[in-house]
Amino acid sequence: MVYANRSEVLTGIAGALAYRDGTVSVANADALRGTVIDELVWSAVFGTDDVKPLCKELVWKAAQELGVLPSSILQLYTAIGAGQVSGFSVPAINIRLLNYDFSRAIFRAANRLNAGAIILEIARSEMGYTQQPQDEFVTCVLGAAIKEKYDMPVFIQGDHFQVNAKKYKENPQKELDGVLDLIRKSVAAGFYNIDLDTSTLVDESRPTMDEQQKDNYTVAVEMTKYIRSIQPKGVEVSCGGEIGEIGKHNSNEQELVAYMEGYNRLLPRGMHGISKMAIQTGTSHGGTVTADGTLAAVKLDFATIEKLTKIAREKYKLAGCVQHGASTLPVDMFDKFPAVHTLEVHLATDFQNIVFDHPKFPADLKKEMYAWCDANCADERKATDTDQQFHYKTRKKANGPFKKQIWNLPADVKAAVIGDLEKRVQTIFEKLNIRGTKDVVRRFVTPVKVAMAATAPAARAEHFDGAD
After folding, report:
1. pTM for this prediction
2. Is 364 exposed, middle or buried (0-12, 13-18, 19+ CB in 10 A)?
3. Is 323 part of a structural domain of the chain?
4. Residue 274 shares a structural domain with residue 161
5. Which of 20, 62, 246, 433 is the most exposed place for a label (fewest CB within 10 A)?
6. In terms of domains, do 79 and 12 share one?
7. Tens digit of pLDDT for each residue in 249-285?
8. Given pLDDT bands bounded at 50, 70 and 90, which one contains residue 298?
């Protein structure tokens, strides 16, 4: 059910939530976890502009009451960097579709394994093509945690908060202001973990490694300073850097050192900087698609992960290195990530593939989605692309336009799809060795209650003239 108006919302929550003068209390948690939370989430996603804000407010405040708190993972990462914790890699799962149902599956798998070192995330680009604004994303995740009685800090992350190199070159101030505004809205919504992807600004034509990385680390510092200025009281947002674009050449020690030396030099004294570094080790986002639509094998450089993680920890006190583009790797590779001390492993496309390529996914809906791609993504088609390659690369962009149809899959189809997603998630959790990490998270992470943020003024980096 999607509520038609505010009156229906307030009638619908009666007996589960008490709402008065903007204050929410949980009257009956079991009733809330029945159909009420389902209806609040669905209405927050598909309701009218009058209904959506109220439903998002109710979910946020109910979550705060129940201790389901958006949190920063920084305290855990600090402990990892100090050698107090080890032996697992944190999965960071990008949720492009079926957010509420998929998040529920993630939390069920986590509860089954007593796992708490888990990140749920969405990239800047994904917010656009999946039509998931930050507050909606957070509402779905928190609603799912409430539904599944997940009793841990909830780590929600902004993945690849990326600077567009072309736009930056044309107008540095305008492009930076756009990214800061993205950060402002994200932190206000409950994203307390943010990946600062300024690796697009690396200029390999420059003569020295410092000059090549200069724009990268300079803009990352500006973003860090802004985050520290707006983060909620009691919350230290976890930030990550990146030294090379995913899909390009493998990262090396010289790049890491140049970035970190420059970043630390510009970071104000006493300010907490980044806690992790994303590196390139041979993967690409979504994998490399062959002519028949299958994925090419990937030769992953685990030695680079191990080497750069060691440098990051010993020399710069970071928690470690981040592996992007990992979801389409063979399952038998995943247990190698903890073995080489990978801090965080990002997973996205394969979960989308499980949905779209599921034998029960409606053929007529997929046909309609591919026709949409043909009509709306034609400029992305290379002359050498087969239909299979083109549709594989572009179908992610049909997530937004077809979001309602995907959320409304027949019950038996959705159950089968979500069931397979949950199995895959649990397998990856086990391979990354996060079983039992609820206790570790409870030991190091202190969640903080945060009042629902009001709309803040638009962001601007004062007096920023760009990096030379």
Report:
1. 0.94
2. exposed
3. yes
4. yes
5. 20
6. no
7. 788 999 999 999 999 999 999 999 999 999 988 655 4
8. low
